[in-house]
Amino acid sequence: MKVRIDEDLCVGCGLCVNTCPDVFEMKDDKAVVKVKALPPGSEDSVKQSKDECPVEAIIIE
Ligand code: SF4
Question: pTM higher than 0.90, yes or no?
């Protein structure tokens, strides 16, 4: 599983960073994916972050 963020859509609400701080962080008022590979056990919170994102900026591939 891979995840990325569409920075054109992200409104910087910070929800994904709160839900999954092991994978997402804020940078210049946008969320970014801070890891090259997802840490073991993070898949569920990444999926939760995707569901919670108000603008559907989180893309799971
Ligand atoms: S939840 Fe969505 S809009 Fe909010 S910071 Fe994360 S990617 Fe951006």
Answer: yes
